[in-house]
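Repro:
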Amino acid sequence: MKRTTMLVGLVASGALALSACGGGTTGASGDAAGPGGKAAQGGTVQVLQNAAYSHLDPARGFDGGVNNFYRLIYRTLTTQGAAPGADGTKIVPDLATDTGKPSDGGKTWTFTLKDGLFFETGAPITSADVKWGVERAWDPELGIGSPYAKQLIEAPATYQGPYKTGDLPTIETPDAKTIVFHLKKPFADFSSVVAQNTFTPVPKGRGAGNQLDSKPIASGPYKISEYKPGASLTLVRNDKWDKNTDSIRKANPDGYHWTFGLDPATIDERMIAGQGTDTDAIAGTIQAATVARIQTPQLKQRTLTGLAGCTTYMGLNTTKKPFNDVKVRQAINLAVNKETVRNAVGGSTLADIATSIQPPTVAGRVDYDPYPSPDHKGDAAAAQKLLSEAGQTAGFTMTLDIMSTPKMQAMAVAVQQALEPLKITVKINTIDTSTYYEVIGTPSQQHDAAITGWCPDWPSGATFLPPLFDGRNIAPKGNSNLAQLNDPGVNAKIDEIAKLTDVTAANAAYGDLDKQIMALAPVVPLLYEKVLMLVGSNVAGAYLHDGFSGGIDLVSVGVADAGK
């Protein structure tokens, strides 16, 4: 995700997300007067956000919010369903006629494109365009988004994408409708991989540099009519999109309009007031200070809530001294007061305390606490003992990277205060929200630690631990292994699990791997955040999608009365 993901929100009301899996939805539903009622044809959905999207180029963006947005303008070979709960995480055909045909023991996958597929320009979408879009993932400047194409598809070590290197022969296009992928090794869930943004078709020869960040080429039901970076974005209907080829996107609204750069408190005030076009608005998770104000029956009817299915954590850079010492990392895990961290984001209404890396929504996850402390308030004495054993009695100074949001600032201060008694001085380095994941995903720009989060890209343990801790995938850009952990034992266990053909057994093995990794303490699991959203009184078709950090599924939301 990424995604490098999130602190819960639709996209960026409090922060951004990488990829996603969420919990159930509660609130009004199935009623024309509530957010889950049937959406009408027409109208414009307003979206209020604190920060702009990370990237409009599908090879670059990889957080839960932008992944959700991409489905409005882009299509991929497969995609996730459009429904609340488990139905929303099922992989279904999108551009392809089915979810792919494996051969050669699962090392080769073949997809056939549907008829009637076109870009917004009117040009037909061909297998060559899909191939070109996938090849862009290897470009050292562009390929900072989803890592799975590079990790799974066979390619020469020197390959750097279509602009620099040219053709990638391991992706074949025998005709305009057929595309064949040759993998490094069997991968039973490749149908889910081709739902990633990097499998978006791009017209062959197009998309170099920043072209798609400024002017995307739509294949979905909407296209960009106006984009003012950092300020606003407007979508209108793409008349070259054929509804008969798309069973996922309802495309009920005539358009969508985003307003970026709003203060989170201002967003909450506008959503509560619900005046003017804000009756047609959606936004991210409300601020902690707003929770007590939305308890009236009228506002509860406009509320959606659920578990986001992500883990917010603090990554510890194992390549930096003194964090190259496992005892120092273990001491930090013991010292952090997770209760104050949770209080900083709004208490138990907005988060549960995290103990393991994988959140409760991941299959096979083991409920355990490797670094317990009374009431999760930290154990300074046990932490000091480990620091003494590591020769760190005099203390040290560390730099903690955070996103420029009030929520992240509050979390960082809670960490800072917890470590101060151990003579650890935490310098807080604030990074602009729109570039945060790109900066911390560049090892040369990383400091000692960073607060971020991770959400599974599809419902499988394979999308949680390997992206974060497989040391062989550490990359100079778009790196999701923030701890830069490269442990032979962890890498070997990842390979061992990858060979399992029983998904249930594999997920259970990932649960055990969670324990193995946390013994090395490369991260401090902090929170399992929750979603609590307020929508406009005229919003309909709204539900929390388990595949997008628990955010509102943009392809289904609309307005109840288009003439209101």
